[in-house]
Design a protein that fits this description.
The chain is of the alpha/beta class and 398 residues long. The protein contains 15 helices and 13 strands. The structure holds pyridoxal-5'-phosphate.
Amino acid sequence: MFATLEQLPPDPILGLGAAFREDPSPDKVDLSVGVYKDRAGNTPVMTVVKEAEQALIASQATKVYLPAAGSPGFREGIFKLVMGEQAAGLRLRTAVLQAAGGCGALRLGAELVQRAQPGATLLLGDPTWPNHGPLLSGGGLQLLRHPYYDPATRSVVLQPVLDALSVASPGTLVLLQASCHNPTGVDPTREQWEQILAVITARRLVPFFDIAYQGLGDDPDTDAWPIREAARQVPEMLVAVSSSKNFGLYRERTGALLVLAEDRDRASAIESHANKAARAMYSMPPAHGALIVERILTDPQRETAWRSELASMCAHIRGLRSKLAEGIMAARPGYDASWITRQRGMFSLLGIARDDVNTLREQHHIYMGYDSRANLAGLNEDNLPRVAGLVAPLLPGN
Ligand SMILES: Cc1ncc(COP(=O)(O)O)c(C=O)c1O
């Protein structure tokens, strides 16, 4: 049966992670895979997560299945975290489904749409996170790409985005990264968001938000602002939430799908279909990570501790951005690197030519995406000056 299958090349991003691990050089720097790293280059378990996990293990009396929609406490906690305290009135109109990470939530959303509108179209900015395509088209959506980013000005190309939305038919889905855009690091400004949401509302399009870095851009509330603003304007939308980065729960596969519906009955019908779609794929979501998040978000003291730990992770990344910009400007007098500090989240699409990306990896052991996406959390005091010095002459522009 499987004789027809040829070996596939490694995943572009995960393959770089594997190559990095095998590189024996003491000078190697990993800016490839998108995980948070501390000053020592580790991706630690957050202190509040460790404590909540120990409390969970100490009190857990069963490993029996969760309900198909997930743990009720987790679902309430995530709803509040993403939609905000003021959105309590929207809760009855919102189906909240626990999912296997942000990836699982994106896929569950696509499967759900497929049940309601087979062959529905989704608009997707270019560039975007490479896994959006396979996850969403694999769930049956037809993808239509539009420009998102101008490398010359390192900003969102607003007019082409608005043009693409303006000609889309009512009911078309629009994938929107709420904050910390992957791979560019460039989010729309508030004014740009307002214009984007105005066209979405006028054309009766359906936002499909992806929020995978809530709290790593500014803070959890600011980073969720576009979602909360959209919720005030549109009758229906989807939100894929990941707890991988902001709770550091990567391997626990923790996330949620929120679906805002026109009314309470619709929300309930959506939940029943999402449960059926999940049942046909994996039955029930994994429990461990979600129960840890639940313990944090339903306990005010733990939540405060989590917000403060997350804020220091966010400040650490911002500090690295400032130091990288300074290092580049020191290595290349007259060059304005302030764009690095204006970007949000862990990523920056540096704009370095592919050959130079390869040279950085092969000769200097600095690993980043082939498109020059760099996870700046991989920098630290030891490696930053060398990276800044090597990257500075390769950046386009003057
Ligand atoms: C933009 C974006 N969306 C969603 C995800 C999914 O995250 P996970 O499935 O690990 O929770 C990621 C992970 O890298 C991401 O970068």
